Amino acid sequence: MSGNRLAGKVAAITGGSSGFGEAAARLFVSEGARVVLGDIQDDAGQAVADALGDAARFVHCDVSSESDIATLVDTAVSEFGQLDIMFNNAGIVGAVGPIDTVDAKEWSATTGILLDGVFYGMKHAARVMKPQNSGAIVSMSSTAGIMGGLGPHAYTAAKHAVIGMTKSVAAELCHYGIRVNAIAPHGMATPMVSGLSGDPSDIEGTKANLAAGSPLKGRAGVAEDVANAALWLASDESGYTNGHTLTTDAGVTTGSSGSAPAFNEAQPMIREAGKRGL
Question: Do 203 and 30 meet the contact criterion of CB atoms below 8 Å apart?
């Protein structure tokens, strides 16, 4: 299915070789956009761009390098004449382990990708978008950026920071007609999540495992769920939405769980001292 929700728009997408980034690239192009994909997975990224044809370009991009992000943005302008959408998507799990064992270099490398990469993306998108007085910046956070205890410490810290930076930058760039929003997914069936169990390609196995514990019975989260959220935030349909973090989490951050509710059968009301009924 294709449409025109992004007709005439140009998007830069980090982490565009797989997962959320690939799904977003395919969806954006189907909706009329032209895209420039950045990733360190060169072969996979070029394959995605080739599949999308003349509407796509691929450039090598390590998001922890400001110059690589600058090149990504400049490529969008040089190849397609403008930049309307910046999707700061690239991510890794990063440093793991108890807080007293986390290696400082691994911590810095993790935040270099998950936080510095978003900062660079916002910075260089803004320098192009401000003169044109329009644009949409969308960045990946996580439910680990809303709640505690859902991810490794460096990951959680960075994802909280992305939400804070989204609010802060939104308050500045709105005066230039630029909207800045974030997406916070829960565990989704992507190569990154599949890789936690050893096989990044086992998307179907990951879907089955996630579906078994999902608050939405039998329904796992998939990359297309995030791509659809990114599409809405990138399109004019969300033209009055700014500084917001949109969850794709089946309600986990609002209390939904895979377990049955505590009071799932009708019973007399509970009163003082354990008495029941009116």
Answer: no
